[in-house]
Amino acid sequence: MDKIEEIRSDEVQEILNRAPNWMIRWGITLFFCLIILLLFISWFIKYPDVVEGQVTLTTSTPPALLVSQTNGYVLNLYHQNGEILKRGDYIASIQNPTKKSSLDSLIYIMEGDLSKESVEELKNINDLGGIQPDVNSLIFNLTELENLIDNKFFKQSLRSLSEQIEFNNRLAWITKQELELLQDEFSNATEKYKADSSLYANKVIAKVTFFNNQSEYFAKKQQIINTKRTYVQNKITSANLKAQKNELLKNNEDQIRQITSDIENSKKNIQTYLDNWQQNYIFKAPQPGKLTYLTNLAVNDFVTTNQELFAVVPNDKEIISIVKIANQAFGKVQKGQKVRMKFANFPYQEFGQLLGEVYEVSNIPTKEGYFLKVKLSNGLTTSYQQEISYQPEMMGVAEVVTDDLRLIERVFNNFRKVFDQ
């Protein structure tokens, strides 16, 4: 009874009769509307799936880097930073034991056809350093070759042998004509001898007459034998003279061939030295473009091996990006996917990002991963509509958008993974 009266007390009645506030009356509805609003917003908010990589901004024809191949002091700087170069222009030289002017003269001579004048020009070059023995050998061989080609004794000997061969051939021809005449006479003498033999057998002619006729027959026969011997001797002499001529020509050709081979070896040694010298001590523009100093460089500065000193940026207007990604993420990347690029030189919070599209994907990985080629959608204009300046080999971070998901899709995908497990 006391409990009933307590329930019906004024305080309790006052609480029961009071209307709930709006939070209690509409709380569930507001919570439901909030959920709907969050779902609605998550549908419009995109949270794409990206693959990150390292990006390098370059041109379709990449800049040529010039690296020091040796230690030494800078001897000359032929062009200043920012100058436009042609292919082959000298950029700089490193101090070395050989005078550049001497080697320039040597290069000029070696690029032409070597002749008598070349020998004199080579003799006038001094201070060639380690290549001097090969140059001396080249001078000697060129002189020997010239002397061998202009050898008057050889030419006289060759002419004398040719004349002797011609005279012996004529003599052999004359001997052959004599032999043909003697053979006709011998044929007649043979018929006469047969007739005399028949007459002597029949005792028509005397014995002395027969013996005289027989002696004439044998004399003709001996004369033919002697003429044949002379003809053969003439042919043997001509053959021997021809052999001597061929031997003389062969020796001359062998000498020319040997000297020519020595000349070629000297030229190769000189060219190898010149190539090594240019590679170690000379910087030349490998392609036309704009010269960029990669370090603060001046004459007499000391440079070390493998130090990057210059870059020649080609006059190529097409700027592309090279993106390197890890092997694990490569399967998601395809042609046509969007790429967002942020560069350390231009903070993206202030300048924005460069946008691009993948147009080439490497098929074979390297130790560093896979490489992508990206075409810039708006050139060097960023997402904040600011144009950044091109700097060769500028590096940054790239994000390849592999799947442009909405926030709600990503949430449901995470739930799906939980249920799949």
Question: Describe it for me?
Answer:
The protein is 52% helix and 19% strand. It has helices at residues 2-7, 10-17, 22-44, 100-111, 116-123, 132-149, 152-201, 207-281, 348-351, 407-420, and strands at residues 49-59, 64-67, 72-77, 84-85, 90-94, 282-284, 289-293, 302-303, 308-313, 319-325, 338-343, 354-361, 370-376, 394-403. It has a six-stranded antiparallel barrel with strand order 1-10-13-12-11-14. A four-stranded antiparallel sheet has the order 2-9-7-4, with no helix packed on it. It is elongated, with a radius of gyration of 52 Å. The mean pLDDT is 80.
List descriptors.
about 425 residues, alpha+beta, six-stranded antiparallel beta barrel, four-stranded antiparallel β-sheet
- What's the end-to-end separation, in Å? 60 Å
Number of strands: 14
Low-confidence stretches: none
CA radius of gyration is 52 Å
Based on Cα principal axes, name the global outline.
Answer: elongated
Q: Mean of the pLDDT scores?
A: 80
Helical percent range? 40-55%
Q: What is the count of DSSP helices, taking H or I runs of 4+ residues?
A: 10
Derived from helix and strand composition plus strand pairing, the structural class reads alpha+beta
Secondary structure: elements and pairs:
Blueprint: H1 2-7, H2 10-17, H3 22-44, E1 49-59, E2 64-67, E3 72-77, E4 84-85, E5 90-94, H4 100-111, H5 116-123, H6 132-149, H7 152-201, H8 207-281, E6 282-284, E7 289-293, E8 302-303, E9 308-313, E10 319-325, E11 338-343, H9 348-351, E12 354-361, E13 370-376, E14 394-403, H10 407-420
Antiparallel strand pairs: 1-10, 1-14, 2-9, 3-5, 3-8, 4-7, 5-6, 7-9, 10-13, 11-12, 11-14, 12-13
Helix pairs in contact: 5-6, 6-8, 7-8
